[in-house]
Amino acid sequence: MSGNRFLLSSVAFGISFGVSLVFSKGDWGKAFGTGCLTFLGSQVGAIVASRQAEDALTWRMDELKGHIRALQRKRSEAYIDLLDVIEEHDRIIANINSLQSQTKQMKAQNAVSNRSNQPFPSWDLSVPTQRRTTAEIQDLDSKIKELEQEEAAVNESLTITLAAKQRAELSLTTTQAELKQVQQKVADQKSLQTRLQAEIQQLQLTKQQLEQQLTQVQEQVATLEQYRTELDRLVSAAEPTRQQVEAGAQSLQGAIEQLQQQIRSLHGELGQLEDQILERRTQKEDLDRELTSLRQQQQQLSASAMASQTANSASTHSSFATAWQGAIAQNGHPGSHAPSTPDPAAPIDLDLSQAALSPDWITFVHQLPHYELQALCAIAQSTNPASTLKQIAESNLTMPELLIDAINEQALEAIGDLILETTSETNTPIIAQEYRSTVAKVVQAYEASQKTA
Fold it and tell me: What does the alpha-carbon distance between residue 273 and residue 265 come to, in Å, rounded to a whole number?
């Protein structure tokens, strides 16, 4: 029964929660509070209905107990009547037996007197004996008739008494059966009352728990109401900010469109710069080829100058050596003789055994031309290597930007990453943070090779 009440209360809670949620337009706290109140109300209604049912059962039980007491009284009265009937029956039987014995005695005396033809003695001396005997016989006959009538009446009364006894026994049997049924009903009512009392106790415990839960829910609802009030206040306070943000968003949208136009224009300029860089690279390659041919011519002239012993050839050699030394001085490698000056475009052979470099880095360093290695060392050793890079680039007929790109290309092929970065503030090339220690080892090896040279 308690399970049915709980199921009914749960259904009422669900319906109330759903309806309140629909009509409150998504207010979960209010809907939950309404559902809890409905659940508690349904439980209280079930408790009241149980109490009413219990009161009705108690009234019915009292009524059945009164009926049982009435039946018990009827049973006692019927039993007393039965005893009276039995006593009356025994008394009548005794009277009948007494009358029958008297009748038999009188008949026997009458028969004896008739056989002896002797008159009965009479105490009245004035009456003749024969007449007294006839009167006595008539008197006896009338008594016998009266006794027979009384016997018939007694028999009839006995028959009526027996019928009443049978009816009383039948009524007693019926009353006993009804009493058993009533006792069974009383036992059922007592067991039902016991179950109802247990359910009432359980409902009282459930009521206390629900009251506690209702208190907690009311506190939560109050907290949610405070939160909602605070949110409404925040929304009201944030409305001007939202309008300002919308206005700012519109202005930002216009600024973004302007920036997009600027980006498109910058993309166009970037394409032009890329075209210029490609053109400069093409020019650099042409200059590198021309420089290579000039160096070959220079080597041929140096060989012819060394073979010549004449004064004219000596003066020519002296002039060429002076020009070559000037070129070497611009590259930062002064020397007294042309043959000892290294080729700036040729890779330098460094001893990297003490540097503990990886094979990729060794390959990268050996691929670098001499002037690119000089540029890498200048970037690693100076915080503002712009002037040095410009000097190295002019000495090798190139530009600092192309020089940096060439080093990064070599690093990308050998190492798989770029090692030179450009700062956004001063547009100065620097070594990437993760490669500074390795480049420092390369610089030490390069300086050691320069000292030994």
Answer: 12
